[in-house]
Amino acid sequence: MIQIQGIGWIDESHYGTVRRAKQSHYAQRATLDTVGQQDGLFRGPIKNFGRFDRVTRLVCTLTALALEDGGLVYGSDNLDIGLLGLNPAGCLAANRSFYTDYVEAGRTLSRANLFIYTLPTSPLAEAAIHFGLSGPLLYLDPLGEVFVDTIETVTSLLGSGQTKQVLLYRIEAMTGWAALLGEREVEQDDWQTDSLPEDLRSDIQDITATLKKSGY
Amino acid sequence: MKTVAVDVDMLTPFGEGLDACWDGLRDGVGMVSKVDRFSTEAFPCHLAACIPGLRYHAGPSLVEQMLQALQKRAVAIPEDAYLMLATTTGEVDLLEETILSDTTDTRAGALDVLLNKCCDLFALNTGGTVVSAACASSTVALGLAAASIESGSRDCVLIVACDAVTEFVFTGFSSLMALDPEGARPFAAERKGLSIGEGAGYILLMSEKRAQRENRPILGQIAGWGLSNDANHMTGPARDGEGLARAVAKSLRTAQMAPERVGFVCAHGTGTLYNDAMEMSAFKRIWSQPCPTFSIKGAMGHAMGATGLLEAALSLRALQESVVLATTNVQHVADEALGWVTTEAQPCHTDMALSTNSGFGGVNAAVLFKRGQGDV
User: Fold this and answer.
1) CB B229 to CB A153 under 8 A?
2) pLDDT tens digits, B50-65
3) How many other CB atoms are found less than 10 A from the CB of residue B11?
4) Which chain A residues are Cβ-neighbours of B127 within 8 angstroms?
5) What pTM was computed for the model?
6) How close A21 comes to chain B (CA, Å)?
7) How confident is the model over A115-154, as pLDDT tens digits?
8) Which of B119, B246, B360 has the CB atom closest to A125's CB atom?
9) CB contact under 8 A, A98 and B168
10) Which end of chain B is more exposed for a tag (fewer CB within 10 A), N or C?
């Protein structure tokens, strides 16, 4: 049975986890895209963190929180975990930033450091490198009911043995979450969801309902 | 439930249709030439493989023009086909236009906009999704589509793939020093980088049951698929090839097949030093004896997110013709590829082929095809 094994989330003022009911108010001491580093959520420095765009920093922060919530420790060995990104804006901001910079520089040569973020999978790839996640890595942008198609993809990846667990990300402008999904059974009754942001509560309900409906 | 391909089509620098592309590749024709779509004066490389006749920054995007041409040729695509759109940058030329003209269309170039256009163009009514996984986008979509058909969730999936040669992409790869000024020479000792290419194509997949019920020609079967990530570097592959080997091993495992059953490999073969060396390392982890291997990118460039779909169609055709294609634009095969990479087309009587792709962020994907009975 596929279940949510851990969740990391962040909004404009707080970040937290679900299983371990961690919650921290950061707004008065850090910003959304610096809090992961400032609060020591990473086990070590992330290479090139300073040049990451905001979405990439957010993805790294959410990955650290979700892995912790799922009881996983990352380190020297790779983890067989896939990464599946849902971000309706894709990499439009990064694309705009890259091409604007190129035009402003006189259309001679562009900056490679900006170009590498012009794929919707780039933030996931940075997380895969730092956290050593070696499962499938992809981005989906489904029409209609987001979680129906997404959960089907997750079950395909797990059911066909492509990977043991999947980190599913949903990033909006100033909020985001990452959910660790896998077949290991965990107790979900104790989850403290009352204090979660409303959008996240609703997404968790949708994912759980879709999983139940799919029969996995 | 088996997943079978019942229809394929493509638009490439060789022109409209699989026949044009196949004939060009078989005859060793090269389509990489000087770019005239935009100025390349500032760049060290001036070559790419473009589709003649497309209008740039003048109305519909490059990929929309490609998809319109494909749609005009398409027949009998069911309206209930689930759409998977595989692309990396999609309509990024629209975003270029807004920046160059200083206008503020913040949705220009958005992938979901292209997905909706594609649904409308092919008159599909059961939804769909963008699938993006760098230059392995199409191959990942093939795997996901096969999984959804095999599980019984769907019985008909249309994968549409497209990417275009734009100034955006050209300057980006130039900044990475990834382009070979003399044109891509995959697996050659002298290789210095890739050539950007473009194209669009579709492949219509069905459950074998539905294909038989509708009396569709069965062009081939997706027998297995595998996905992995290197978790190593943003733009360079893991040099030991372990990540790609893992994807190939998964494809063999899902197909329940030994490596020896595979008759040839349609490799990613970009022409960059590291990619091609990595691929040979990966294949040597799988096969103890050389398996005939080719790349199409010396002839038609690297069509990025679309390349996997074009290579899938060509692999099905190669199975049908019992021919392994030549790798174009290779004078001296690199030492590590000797005995593996074909420089001349050769007969190959097999019913199984492997196609692989890798991309930025360490993405790897592999798909196994089994020959069908219908004409590809």
Assistant:
1) no
2) 999 999 999 999 999 9
3) 27
4) 142-144, 149
5) 0.97
6) 29
7) 999 999 999 999 999 999 999 999 999 998 899 999 999 9
8) B360
9) yes
10) N
